Amino acid sequence: MRGVHHIAIIGSDYARSRTFYHEVLGLPIVREVYRAARDSWKCDLDAGNAQIELFSFPSPPERLTRPEARGLRHLSFSVDDLNAEIARLADHGVRCEPVRVDEYSGQRFTFFSDPDGLPLELYES
Predict the structure, then answer these.
(1) Percent of the chain predicted with pLDDT > 90
(2) pTM for this one?
C-alpha cells in the first residue's frame, strides 16, 4: 500500500454537506457528478494527501452512536496553526471542543462535527 486514496462520507443533506466541506473547510472540488441511476451526487474533494468523496443517497440511515461506535471513529485534518483554524471555523459558526494535548506526541488537537454530527479532528503538526 502507498497511502490513503480517499475517504467516503454520505451526508443527509448534500447541499449543506458540500457547503461545509468545500466552503467552510476550504477543500477544493476535483470533480462533481450526478449519478442518475443511483439518484446520487458524488463530489471529490482535494484533502491534500487524499481525497474525500462526498455522496448523497436517498434516505441514508443515521449513525447509531458517537464517537465510540464500531467502524470509523473520526476523520482528522492536519493543520499548521490550530488556533487560527479554530478561529476560522468559529467565523463560520462551527464550534470546536476545548484543545487537548496528545499524551504521546505532545501535539495539540481538537474535535468538531460536520453538519451530520460526524466527528472531525484538527491535529496541529
Answers:
(1) 75
(2) 0.86
